Amino acid sequence: MSTFLFDSFHQGLGQVLDLRAQQHALTASNLANADTPNYKARYIEFDRILSEVVGTSEHVGLARTDAMHMPGSAGDIDRPSIEEMDAPPWAADGNSVQLERETTRLTENSMMYNAVSKGLSKRMAMMRFAASNGRVG
């Protein structure tokens, strides 16, 4: 992808879509395993990963200067760390999936995916408009 046409913001939005798709798959898996004994619900901590990528994290992160270096605690945007939730003490079967939490996560994730997708679509429409010298059509 050309960095001339597609700046780091544009590429970042694409990476957010990838993360949201991964979260959707994790949440769907959590819902599918709601009755599986000892299954641990999994999720991606978006706030932590995105703050590290954007650089707004309050703590100093690790700099990867070589592809062979191991990622920091949150992983990286291409391979984020996936957190597991422990089962609450009242869960007799050890399953940590809570249907309300997972359906809320699925809804929120879907809304965020659609918002980022719409933002990318608007950026592409502006680029098409500029490339056509302001002609609509």
Strand order in the largest sheet = 1-2
What's the helix count?
3
Helix content: 40-55%
Q: pLDDT average, as an integer? A: 81
Poorly predicted spans: none
Structural class: mainly alpha
The geometry reads as elongated
- What letter string, H or E per element, gives the SSE order? HEHEH
**Strand count, sense and closure of the main sheet?**
2 strands, antiparallel
Count of strand segments: 2
How many angstroms does the end-to-end distance come to?
25 Å
Strand content: under 5%
Spatial extent as radius of gyration:
19 Å
Description:
With 137 residues, this protein is mainly α. It contains three helices and two strands. It has a two-stranded antiparallel ribbon. Helix 1 (8-32) packs antiparallel against helix 3 (99-131). The longest helix is centred in the last third of the chain and has 33 residues, at 99-131. The chain starts with 7 loop residues before the first helix and ends in a 6-residue tail after the last helix. The mean pLDDT is 81.
